[in-house]
Design goal:
Elements lengths: L4 E4 L4 H11 L4 E3 L3 H10 L3 E5 L5 H13 L8 E5 L6 H10 L2 E5 L4 H31 L1
Parallel strand pairs: 1-2, 1-3, 3-4, 4-5
Helix pairs in contact: 2-3
Length: 141
């Protein structure tokens, strides 16, 4: 089970969010491009934190491809750091296409970011636990 979170936010916010999360004991990897996100997802991730403005067609296509290839028990949590104000088309498209999305409106309080990420990673860990229990049950039967 992968316990790290991938960060695809602005060049300023990425290192800052990484430091905040690492200080809270969360393994965080900054991805500069949509291709890097795809590469790191293939290596394994517990969750993804992405800035709303990064949700362009290329990234959405990469994420949709990755999510479609997941096994049925798997549901990668995606946390979107939303722009302040009205819901944007990018945010609406992310919710529609990605499924397991949590919106975090900016500016995000440090504690809110940490708790949202920990919650997403706990939910991901439960998916793996349930899968393991199901496999053991099947092996027993």
């Amino acid at each position: 089970m992968e316990r790290r979170i991938l960060l695809h936010v602005s060049p300023h916010d990425g290192p800052l969010a990484q430091r905040v999360l690492q200080s809270a004991g969360v393994d965080a990897t900054v991805c500069a491009t949509a291709q890097e996100v795809a590469t790191e997802l293939a290596r394994g991730a517990g969750a993804l934190l992405v800035a709303e403005e990064a949700l362009g067609d290329v990234l959405l296509a990469e994420l949709a491809r990755y999510l479609a290839a997941q096994p049925p028990w798997s549901d990668l949590p995606v946390l979107v750091m939303a722009k302040r104000g009205a819901d944007s088309l990018e945010a609406q498209r992310a919710v529609e296409r990605l499924g397991n999305v949590t919106m975090l409106e900016r500016p995000v309080r440090t504690l809110s970011l940490i708790t949202a990420v920990r919650s997403a990673l706990r939910a991901r860990a439960r998916q793996y636990e349930m899968r393991a229990l199901s496999q053991r049950k099947d092996e027993f039967l």
